[in-house]
User: Fold this.
Amino acid sequence: MTTPAIPPAMPANSLTGISLRPVEEADGASVAGLIAACFAEYDGCVFSSDEFPELEAPARWAASLGARFWIAQAPGGDVVGCICAKPVDGRAVELHKFYVAAHLRGSGLADMLVAKAFELARATAASEIFLWTDSRFARAHRFYERHGFVRQAGSRLLHDVSDSTELHYRRELSWP
Assistant:
């Protein structure tokens, strides 16, 4: 079995008018709205702003972690996707806040976003990229698996308002 290639920076079916840019402090409410809409698609998955204090100042939060946080913005200004990538211990990149608006799933936007994370992984010579994802997000799990991520043993309980259980996905990386 061959390992899937690193996603291209731009999908074959270009998303006209969608732009990627670093998150700004003013984006916090829009990112919260995107996450809340994604959570609302799943029974029992509740968005509580108390559990996302980092969205009050998302650019500062990302900077404090040494992370890069990008948003996808539609013409007109709507935030339609986001991803945060944090270097860990000089050997890995951890993904956070990876969400795409429902109407754009399957469009290539998720590929564009994850490509930004892989660019950071390459720039830091990371040997792996990993994430934790809610056990209810089955479509996201299939996306990760198509991109070479492998579900790891075990899970973790968040003890949040949604009573979330998260699954761990990881992908080994090698660079020429």
About this structure: Helices lie at 28-39, 58-65, 109-123, 138-146.
